[in-house]
Automatic annotation (TrEMBL):
This is Phosphatidylinositol 3,4,5-trisphosphate 3-phosphatase and dual-specificity protein phosphatase PTEN. Its EC number is 3.1.3.16, 3.1.3.48, 3.1.3.67. It is an enzyme of class 3 (hydrolase). InterPro entries: C2_domain_sf (IPR035892), Dual-spec_lipid-protein_phosph (IPR051281), Prot-tyrosine_phosphatase-like (IPR029021), PTP_PTEN (IPR045101), Tensin_C2-dom (IPR014020), Tensin_phosphatase (IPR029023), Tyr_Pase_AS (IPR016130), Tyr_Pase_dom (IPR000387). The keyword RNA-binding does not apply. It is found in: Cytoplasm. Residues 138-308 form the Phosphatase tensin-type domain. Keywords: Cytoplasm, Hydrolase, Lipid metabolism, Protein phosphatase. GO terms for molecular function: phosphatidylinositol-3,4,5-trisphosphate 3-phosphatase activity; protein serine/threonine phosphatase activity; protein tyrosine phosphatase activity. Belongs to the PTEN phosphatase protein family. It comes from Paramecium tetraurelia. Residues 41-60 are annotated as: Disordered.
Length: 470
């Protein structure tokens, strides 16, 4: 075990980093923000009374504001920990300028005014079933069309899946979508399909590109980068070129890729503003990308751009996962407790805890602990916990995607409830208590520095530090 292994302990609500015999007190509580705190930060961010963004009362997954609060606390920990770690001295973490809500609204209004000024104001009576399915997403109602389709920028369009046959009754009709592009952007459009589960004949559109990943999952880091390269090339090929980007609903997966591209194109300098803008312009309730793992990957992409990383020249860190703790025991089964097991997907490998442990029921224990052997991880990782109960052995509890290249330490990776997919939906705490979290104890296998190519100019860039992230 390397000498740099440190422990993270919570004493009276204060997190303490312990390295060998030395302790460093971090004077804050690493926890989910209360609604009052979120409102106060919203006020400081120039959200006026009556215009406050919906923050933590969402009935969906997670929101960028709550995530950003935790990120700021983690970054503070990194800066403080840098006092005792020589290679972190003087680093500036998460000090990027942010855009006010008013400025974001002006950007939204600018795009909307451009659309209304350049498209015929011929509205169409909406299909009530389609309105119901599109929920809070903003629809396109010009030129005689009424589609689940939104101009995110003047050249980037987010839309729902172009469906055929019976499905076209409640989703965008393939025929209507094709007619829209052929009449509004003839010869200058390209459609991007992000669905892994859904494909169609490419002859339906002018050009089609596929960058597939599963619904409610995060894309791999390399897929994000390849998408940005392809989209950037297409949009710059001709000044009239536009891109229509869709998954199934045209919100989550679509939002991840569009937010990352807006960072790549430097429309925004930080993930937080990119997500806020997307939520504002795509939806009426300002909830765009809401799945925690997808949010995490947008922040990853921001850090990669700032470090001038590209997929072929990532750090390629290998970490050994030596222990997992689940704190406290989820309340899943009829009589309380749960029978947890987990699986890990990493590239072409899959690991199941059932290969090492028999499933055991937990009830009154303070936590659940798995001591692991020979689990070496690299790149994108999906960790999923399931429950073996009376009725089902595969009841999904929660999951998290993460990328090992964004670990910068050997120790404990903590993920709170509100940043765990599915668990974050339990607002009442019936299944997962308010302070629920998982701890991943990791040891880095390779710690060598590498030379990275610039994302933007391919110049050599020597990385001398490691990002603090999760």
């Amino acid at each position: 075990m390397p000498e740099k292994l440190f422990e993270l302990q919570k004493i009276d609500g204060i997190w303490i980093f312990k390295q060998n015999s030395m302790s460093l007190i971090i004077l804050f509580k690493m926890r989910s923000a209360t609604q009052e705190e979120l409102k106060q930060r919203a006020k400081q961010n120039e959200i006026s009374s009556g215009e406050e963004e919906v923050l933590s009362d969402s009935d969906e997954d997670c929101d960028p504001e709550n995530y950003n609060f935790l990120m700021s606390q983690i970054d503070l920990a990194a800066l403080t920990y840098g006092i005792v770690q020589e290679d972190q001295k003087g680093q500036e973490i998460n000090l990027r300028e942010r855009v006010s809500t008013q400025q974001l609204k002006q950007e939204v209004n600018h795009v909307n005014q451009h659309i209304s000024g350049n498209h015929q104001n011929i509205t169409s009576v909406p299909n009530p079933i389609k309105l119901l399915v599109s929920k809070q997403k903003r629809r396109y109602n010009y030129n005689g069309f009424n589609l689940d389709l939104t101009y995110i920028t003047e050249k980037i369009i987010a839309m729902g899946f172009p469906a055929e046959n019976i499905e076209s009754i409640y989703r965008n009709s393939m025929q209507d979508v094709r007619r829209f592009f052929d009449s509004v952007h003839p010869g200058h459009y390209k459609v991007y399909n992000l669905c892994e589960e859904r494909k169609y004949d490419h002859s339906n559109f002018n050009q089609v590109a596929e960058f597939p990943f599963q619904d409610h999952q995060a894309p791999t880091f390399s897929l994000i980068y390849e998408f940005c390269l392809d989209l950037d090339y297409w949009l710059k090929l001709h000044e009239k070129n536009v891109a229509g980007i869709h998954c199934k609903a045209g919100k989550g997966r679509t939002g991840v890729m569009i937010c990352c591209y807006m960072l790549y194109a430097r429309q925004f300098t930080n993930a937080y503003d990119s997500m806020r803008y997307y939520g504002m312009i795509r939806t009426k309730n300002k909830k765009g990308v809401t799945i925690p793992s997808q949010i995490r990957y947008i922040f990853y992409f921001e850090k990669a751009l700032n470090n001038k990383w590209v997929p072929n020249d990532m750090p390629n860190k290998q970490v050994e996962l030596v222990k997992i703790r689940v704190i406290p025991v989820p309340n899943v089964n009829f009589f309380g407790g749960c029978g947890p097991w987990f699986r890990i997907q990493n590239k072409d490998k899959e690991y199941s805890s059932k290969n090492q442990f028999s499933v055991k029921e937990y009830k009154l224990e303070p936590y659940i602990e798995f001591k692991l052997k020979d689990i070496i991880l690299q790149g994108d990782v999906m960790l999923q916990f399931l429950n073996q109960g009376f009725l089902s052995s595969n009841q999904k509890l929660f999951q998290a995607w993460f990328n090992c290249d964004f670990f910068d330490y050997t120790g404990i990776l903590m993920i709170d409830k509100f940043m765990l997919d599915k668990a974050c939906k339990d607002k009442s705490g019936k299944t997962f208590q308010k302070d629920f979290r998982i701890e991943l104890h990791v040891v880095e296998v390779n710690q060598e520095n590498k030379s990275f190519n610039s994302v933007h100019n391919n110049s050599n860039f020597q990385s001398t530090h490691k990002n603090f992230g999760f």
